Amino acid sequence: MKRGLLLLALAAAGGAQNLPDVLKQGETVFNKSCATGYCHGARGTGGGAPRIAARGFDQAFIANTVLRGVPATAMPAFGATLSRSDVTAVVAYVASLNGVTGPARINAPAAKLSGDAARGRDLFSDAVRSFGRCSTCHEVGGLGIAIATPIAKVPADAAALKALATPQVSTVTIGSDSMPALVVSQKANAVIFYDLTSAPPVLRTEAPAAIQTRDGSTWRHSSVTGSYNDAEASAILTYLRAVVKP
Amino acid sequence: MRYLTFLLALSTLSAQDAGITRADWPHYGGTQFSWRYSGLDQVNTSNVRNLLPAWIFQTGDYTENLGSTPIVADGVMYLISAGARVFALDAAKGTLIWQYRYPTARPGIAGSHSDFIQNRGVAVGDGKVIFGTKDNFMVALDQKTGHEVWKVSVDDPKQCGCNITAAPLIVKDKVIVGGNGGDQAHRGYLTAFYTKTGRMAWRWYVVPAKGEKGNETWKGDSWRFGGGAPWLTGSFDPDLNLVYWGTGNAAADFYDADRVAAGTNKGKDVNLYTASVVALDADTGKLKWHFQEVPDDQWDYDSAYEVLLMDRQIRGQMRKVLVHMNKSGLTFVLDRATGEFLSSFNVPEISNWMTGVTEDGKLVGRNEPELGKTKNFCPSTAGAKSWNSTAYSPRTGFLYVPAIELCMDITPNDTKASEGHFFMNGDFPSRLPPNRSTYSHVDAWDPVTGKRVWSVPYKYVLLSSVLATGGDLVFTGDPEGNFFALNARTGDKLWSFQTGAGHRGAAISYSVNGRQFIAATTGFQQTVVGGAIIGLFPEESFRGGSTLVVFALPEGSR
């Protein structure tokens, strides 16, 4: 089965160009291919086509749109017409118009996976498990919802996966309701956190005065990995070892 | 006739009250009974010719149409644009109270439903304004401030190719929403969340998993990507505590050999629970009953449309019924407590995919697509009605239908499923049926007798929801930009106003401080059906936009 698996690769990493050069190249490509009055205008401020500066677009979205176009509109797919280097550059440039700086991440072909790892990849995002699948909270290889921080270290085996310590999960109390929570941001007027009471996690925004937060929680990773048996968990770990670069 | 209607009205008072809106327009379909009927009668057949715009609101979101149904509560209107900008407006004046702009959506799968920019409305309840997004989030805003309260990811658009375009439905302490994606290799579902916390209360999969009842109606593993997306908004009967929803077509749309075992009897229950009406327990999401309208759907005649709940005298007995039309135009009257088939009628004038329905509700004379051939079928996948809603008036007892007369040429193929990617397995270009000069009509149907009472033809294709009112008026708009009122009893056109852009959304009615307003969304949508219609009538230019035009009788003239 063909999967829409898109591995994000740091296309500019290790390359000869530094970021200012990439942006300069991107601006040139943009002015040539995107900035006419019929389309997005100089610096993406809009013309016949929508404004694309300061829209909050991220690199993944821009890369997807540039490569594939927007069906049923005048936005063509540039994946076949621009070189990989030009795509990388123009994505970085449009991202910079949206306040995102850094080397462009664009879609690269998926690496070949071993049989066990490929099975692990399918299990990771297995839709039949509904919200019991890993991708409910983890984004890996372009699939999944990035609720947890990126996986940096792969557990040794299924037992370690279950026993995984999750010190980042704290406890939030609102009135009489206490819940395991992953705090995303704490500002003067709002605390934003994921409520992990049940899957899927809910991103909640509360006034700081309305809630109490304390470190630690009774939440355990094993409470959400129950849809997988040990053999399935092992295959998932094999997949993660193949794609997660420390 | 009037006297009889009055008697009927008295005898069904409670069900009527549940279907009628007054000052507010609280739900997508008016009330949870989905009649799109306002009891207000200040604007009526004798004065509708005096209607004038009272205020106009432009969303500024012109990437797609304005296809949503506004909600009105306590003099405040809540409106969402195609790209999920949400506005709270003073419903009497149109002044902005707050606005919310949904940030850039997560990318989905190119060319799949997750690319469509559409939003059909918000739900308002529990002090929140709740909506689904292009990238499969449910978002709840504080009704007073427009600030985000909770947000939850319903599915990964990069995997499922699906999204949410339907307005959610508030049911007691929950909000229920269906998803798009039944034309992809995807397995449809309804999900209920607690309005207070955003936590999931239940999920019901349209296609049963292995080991569950109904799974045996699927060949092999085809159930995993069997479609059935319930992509519109359902209804709720508080007395029976049942939620009603229409489910979408089976996937692949036009080719069944991979999902239906050879030799299957197609009379009943094939590929459950696609192309069906289902009744679910509102608290648990457990299936109470189902009625499949198109067993083994091979025409994309999905049954995801609105479900109207009413109490009517059927064969001398007062029955709690539901009336449900699917894309084919077949309209079923069922007992809504049990799912028992009571009767059916067929709305389109041109229909060649079957020859009739038996007395127990089974299709006869099926004319199916065939691999390796191109065959002409009517109606088209645009439907004998598109997703825009019908309306029902308890005063006339009629169902008002914006009906379409189009055909299509289906050429199936046997492409294999690839998760989240398009899985229609066929080309299906729309065709104008020969020997006609009009391609749609507004009809009044009596759902009890199954008879068409009147019909008003229209040259192009009507794609906007209908509003019926206590002033015996029926409102809808056309793609040329005309918003018009018909006499609900006769179909006579009483008033029309050129709003400047085509209609693809809905009209509602409400009142503030005793003044009745009629609000119409304008801006013709290009995605899917709209684009196909544009292609059929190249001499016309159906204009897009995203503007709400609100009408009332001039102050002092009432």
Characterization of the model:
- The complex is a heterodimer of chains A (246) and B (558).
- With 246 residues, chain A is of the alpha+beta class.
- Chain A folds into three domains: 7-108, Cytochrome c-like domain (Cytochrome Bc1 Complex, Chain D, domain 2), CATH 1.10.760; 115-161 and 221-243; 170-214.
- Chain A is built from six helices and seven strands; from the N terminus they run βαααβααβββββα.
- Chain A has helices at residues 19-33, 59-68, 84-97, 115-124, 158-162, 230-243; strands at residues 7-10, 105-108, 170-174, 177-186, 191-195, 202-206, 212-214.
- In chain A, strands 6-5-4-3-7 form a five-stranded antiparallel beta sheet, with no helix packed on it. Chain A has a two-stranded antiparallel ribbon with strand order 1-2.
- In chain A, a hairpin with a 2-residue loop joins β3 (170-174) and β4 (177-186).
- In chain A, α1 crosses α3.
- Chain A is globular and about 55 Å long.
- Chain A starts with 6 loop residues before the first strand and ends with a helix.
- Chain B has 558 residues and is mainly beta.
- Chain B has one domain (15-101, 119-552): Methanol Dehydrogenase, Chain A (8 Propeller).
- Helices cover 5% and strands 36% of the residues of chain B.
- Chain B is built from four helices and 40 strands.
- In chain B, the strands form ten sheets. Chain B has a six-stranded mixed beta sheet with strand order 1-2-34-35-36-37. A four-stranded antiparallel beta sheet of chain B has the order 3-40-39-38, with no helix packed on it.
- In chain B, β10 (137-142) and β11 (148-153) form a beta hairpin.
- Chain B is globular.
- Residues 1-13 of chain B have low confidence and may be disordered.
- Chain A binds chain B through residues 1-4, 6, 50, 55-58, 60-61, 64-65, 68-72, 77, 125, 127-128, 130-131, 135-136, 142-145, 147, 177, 195, 197-205, and chain B through 63, 103-107, 109-111, 115, 147-154, 156, 158-160, 187, 197-200, 203, 209, 224, 417-421, 526-527, 531.
